[in-house]
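pinned: reference chain
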Amino acid sequence: MSVLAIWVQRSPAGSCAGIKCAFTTCAHRQWRGSPIWGHRLPKPQGPRGRERPGHDLPADLCGRPGSHFSADGLAAGLKKGSIIADMTTGDPNATRAMADDLKSAGITLIDAPVSGGPHGADAGTIAIMVGAPVDVYARLQPVFESISPNIFHCGDIGTGHTMKLVNNVVAASVRVATFEAVTMGIKAGLSLETCSRVLAKGSARSYTTEITLPKFVKGELKTNFTLGLMHKDVRLATELGVASAVPMPVCNLVREIFQIALNEQGADADVNCLIHLHERLAQVTFAPKQ
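pinned: its C-alpha cells
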C-alpha cells in the first residue's frame, strides 16, 4: 500500500502548518514497508510531477488548486490503489469533490487534518481528525498512530475537514474573547500575570489561557501561525455555515475582527499580533511586540 500524506496550498494564504506539525514526528518513516511521504504543493506554477527514484510517489508536486489531480498532475504519479491523506485545513465540500474525481483512477483521497500546534507535534500528542470510509480508516490507523495516539475517526470523507473547521473557529473565537477581556481587565487595574494565572485555573481556561498568556508573561509573542491562516480558517468555517444554512453571527464577527487585524498588520503577522489591535482600541499597552 502506498500512502502519500500531502498538504495542498489551496489559496494565497494556504497552510502547511498542520502537516508540518505532524511530520515533526513521522517524516519519511516506513510503516510495514509502505512509504510515507509529506509534500507541500507550492503556489500555482503549472501542474507537473517528478518520480522519486525507488518509490511510486511523486517527489515534487505543484499546480493550481483543483488541477493537482488532472491527467498530468498528481494522479499521473500515483499507482492504482494509492491513498492520499490531505492533512490541511480544507473545504469539506471541495475535499469530497476531489475524492470523487480520483475514484476513476483507482486512487483514494481522505482528509486527516491535525491540531495541537508545534508543542503537540514535539510531544507526539497532536489530534488527527480523519474523514474516511471505515475500511480505509482501519488500514491507515497504524500509520496515523506513528504520529500520535490521539486519532479520531470523524466519519466519511470530508468530516475530518469539517471537524477541523469547528475546532479552529472555536479556537479563534476564544482567542478574540480572551484578548478582549484581558485587555479590559488590565486597563481596569489587573496585571497580565494575574490574568494569566487565574484564567488558566478557572472555568475560562483554554489553549489561549494555558499556552498563549503565559508566553506573553515571559515576553514571547509568536506562536508560528499567521493572521492570514487564522482568517482563512474562520472564513472557511463561516462559508460552510452559509452552505449548511446555519446562522453563525458570533463566528462571522470573529472573522471580521481578524480581517481588521489582517488589514492593519498583514497576513504574515503572527496570529498573536491580534492583541495589538485590542491594545490600540483600548489605548493600553502590555503585550510583547515580537
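why pinned: The CA atoms of residues 116 and 128 lie 9 Å apart. The beta strands are 3-8, 30-31, 34-41, 48-51, 58-62, 83-86, 108-111, 114-115, 127-131, 151-155.
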